[in-house]
Amino acid sequence: MPGLFQQIQAGKLWDFHGGIHPPGRKEQTNQKPIAVLPIPDRLYLPLRQHIGVAGQLLVKVGDRVLKGQQLTGADNSMAVPVHAPTSGTVLSITPHTSPHPSALPELTLVLEPDGLDEWRQREPLNFLTCDNLTLLSRIQDSGIAGMGGAGFPTHIKAGLTQPVDYLIINAVECEPYISADDLLMQEAATTIVKGIDILCRLLNPKAVLIGIEDDKPIAAAAMMAACSQREHYYVRVVPTKYPSGGEKQLIQLLTNKEVPNGRRPADIGIVMQNVGTAFAIAQAVLDDHPLLSRIVTVAGDTLNQPQNVLALLGTPVSALLDACGFQSQPQQRVIMGGPMMGFTLPDLSVPVVKTTNCVLAPTAQELPAASTEMDCIRCSACADACPASLLPQQLLWYSKAKDSDKLNEYNLADCIECGACAYVCPSEIPLVQYYRVAKADIREQQREALKAEQAKARFEARNARLEQEKQERQQRNQQLAAARQQQQLASGANTAVADALARIKAKQAQTAPADERNKEQILAERELKKQQARDYQQQKAQQQQAHQATEPHSGQPEQTAATVNTDSKAAAVAAAIARAQAKKAAQATEQHTTEQQVMPTPDTGKGNEAVVSAEADPRKAAIAAAIARAKAKQQTQTENETSAPPAAAGTVDKPTAESNSAAPEDPRKAAVAAALARAKAKKQASAEATEQTAPLATEAVIADKVVADAVVTEDPRKAAIAAAIARAKARKQADSENS
Ligand code: SF4
Ligand code: SF4
């Protein structure tokens, strides 16, 4: 079996899925020669007429420009310049309605032709001696973009570096009414072939396949004649079927190759150019004639002379229609492009651009407007007609739902907007319009995502730059500091250090008096506060003494009040004084040493002593008070005993008898009484032994009395005091005996 190339050489053709056969209606124009339109009064030149970006503007309002002069630059690989189609003056550069389905305003240069049609200097090239770079630059500088309708920059496709098997020249022109390429081939086949030669020089393909529909026999014959001297140029006449002119469909027709989804023909070794583009390349290289005009089919039953015209770029559609005898009708529609892929113009001031191949002004009967849209009945006629093997009804559903994920999943990007689905739809659903809107939305989302990515990249680059600058600054400062240090060391840094120290000392001297003054002031204030505290404490102590002196002691025993009335008052006063002094001593000092004071009894003037603890212990003060009272009582008893009969005075059994009288009632009292009796007996025995022990004996008696009082009054506090006194007395007794 012969290989693919042999099959191609043998003239084998293949088919593609779907497609339709609408009425061609090309006879309106394909039998007439190309007319050359007169230069219009105004030319409206959008600065961007292709897929890509606009070049930088090179002229300004008021400038006079020559024919073929660049109005915008080719400063970007995706930029294609725009040229002045004739000589004239730049009137304005303002937004103008664009030749696009969206009709959005596009920045447009308005040129007023001067009628001279004065050319700039031209420099033709010999493509056989030029290098590829020069050829590609010439193609780009001449403003050539795909003239089949896509408008992709030609120099990019012509400058591919990857191997190319087949260069396909698209001369199918399958859409009804349109015959511009047909007429171009009829009249300029030789120039077209020269353009193909230039492309072959750049791409070096294995073979050139020129596809022409079988409804263009004159053009096919012309091309065959022009290519007869080229060994690997093959003119292939394909059956008329819409849309055979689609890129992927024509590739499949001629080579039986399918371009995978999301891939380009170049990925399978194929490059396709429109026949009009090949003609423009030849003009640009061989004549230095940039793309200034193009052939446009002006058709429709509202025209007296439908025909193909050679129109300058920027010519308003109204000028084309007027040149063809346009008879406008009510609710007249004017379509740019063919009836399948074209779009209705918002107004007739829209200009001819590089991708304009047809202007259609049909009558209402000839091309009825779309009727009311109905619901999809899922007949699948659209899927059967789709040349891209898509599911148009599913795409419709997801387009309405604006579900971009599903649209991508169902390969909306592969839709060539041929309109075959809408053509066969019984529900009159304008399917292509839905797809165009959905594609625009997706493009906008992608643009936003790209902008966000670029913004993020710029942000990160800025952060990196700031960080780098910071590090460089720090490094520079360190180097400067090191250099300064070395310089100071070299030029006697000690002097500078001494000066700095002197300055610091002078500053300290200035601030010292102020600090000293503050210190003295603080000490004076402190002293004043201390003096006030001492005065307050002294005043308070005096008040307490006076108060206690006027009040009888609440704990005075009742049984002694009857016998020693005067002395008990004195004892109470002494006890109060003792308590006050103890409290005062506790408040006045914070020392924890114990101090005793002996307070003379004012009434007796004898050596009665009140033992007061210097500690701020109320219990000890109470003990001292109790001892004082006991001493007072003892003094009274002593006086009574001196005045009593000898029998009574000489006995020591009286207290015992008193205690015994209480013994039957309370065993504890009896025990205490017994202890007292023993203590008294001991005291009696040692009373005369030494005079030094007398105070101790006296104290013991007092203590015994206190204990007895405590027992008699049954006061726990007194009992505790008595027990403490007894213990102290015992210790003293023991000490005295030891001494
Ligand atoms: S042709 Fe129209 S009605 Fe039929 S499935 Fe497609 S969209 Fe629906
Ligand atoms: S317009 Fe798109 S979906 Fe409809 S037939 Fe053409 S390629 Fe298929």
Structure in words:
The chain has 739 residues and is α/β, with parallel strands linked by helices. The protein folds into three domains: 4-360, NADH-ubiquinone oxidoreductase 51kDa subunit (Rossmann fold, 3-Layer(aba) Sandwich); 387-491; 549-738, no CATH class. Helix content is 49%, strand content 10%. The chain is built from 22 helices and 14 strands. It has helices at residues 4-9, 132-141, 154-158, 180-203, 217-226, 247-255, 275-287, 317-323, 381-385, 392-401, 404-409, 420-424, 431-490, 493-550, 558-561, 565-588, 618-643, 646-650, 653-662, 667-686, 694-713, 716-738, and strands at 35-36, 43-46, 64-65, 88-97, 105-113, 166-171, 207-213, 233-238, 270-274, 293-299, 307-312, 335-336, 343-344, 358-360. The strands form three sheets. Strands 1-11-10-14-12-13 form a six-stranded mixed sheet, with helices on both faces. A four-stranded antiparallel sheet has the order 2-5-4-3, with no helix packed on it. β4 (88-97) and β5 (105-113) form a beta hairpin. The longest helix is centred in the middle third of the chain and has 60 residues, at 431-490. It starts with a helix and ends with a helix. The model is unreliable at 552-566, 590-616, 642-665, 688-701 and 710-714 (pLDDT under 50). One iron/sulfur cluster (SF4) binds next to α12 and α13.
